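Quick one, probably user error.
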């Protein structure tokens, strides 16, 4: 009888642990709330389950405009264990294209529509003295990476490979 009680208690405890665990979408929502932004504003560049010091946590990274947000969300409790922001604002080029225009240029190059891809990154950066948008996305088992000149809209780098 005691073994049956212990077994029942163990099953109940395991069920409580499973119910308390945060899934990836829940972790993203927690991260967005902590940053005070909406999902429509954010471009996620990293979101995966990891282990740190014996506990599971989600590594979350996203951009809103030129601000990078990084945080760790505890998978069991939803607590934000680490939170960092970093501004990546660069001086705007005269006549600079927008982030959305850079994204559309990249999509047009490979003949895809925005709703058919998973956007990984759209980031304004400096590369060899040139201001570029780094655009990365996946679709249909492929990963695409672009550097697009922010002043002219010219594609200065394009890579496509199978998504692992």
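Nope, works fine. Designed sequence:
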């Amino acid at each position: 009888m005691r073994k049956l009680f212990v077994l029942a208690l163990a099953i109940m405890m395991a069920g409580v642990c499973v119910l308390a665990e945060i899934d990836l979408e829940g972790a993203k929502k927690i991260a967005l709330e902590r940053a005070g932004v909406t999902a429509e504003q954010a471009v996620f560049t990293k979101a995966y389950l990891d282990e740190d010091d014996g506990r599971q946590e989600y590594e979350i990274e996203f951009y809103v405009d030129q601000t990078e947000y990084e945080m760790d969300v505890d998978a069991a409790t939803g607590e934000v264990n680490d939170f960092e922001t970093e501004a990546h604002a660069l001086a705007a080029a005269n006549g600079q294209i927008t982030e959305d225009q850079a994204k559309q240029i990249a999509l047009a190059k490979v003949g895809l529509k925005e709703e058919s891809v998973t956007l990984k990154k759209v980031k304004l950066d400096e590369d060899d003295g040139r201001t570029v948008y780094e655009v990365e996305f996946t679709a249909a088992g492929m990963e695409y990476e672009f550097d697009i000149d922010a002043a002219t809209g010219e594609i200065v780098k394009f890579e496509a490979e199978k998504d692992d």
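Strands lie at 43-52, 55-64, 67-74, 80-87, 118-127, 130-139, 142-149, 155-162.
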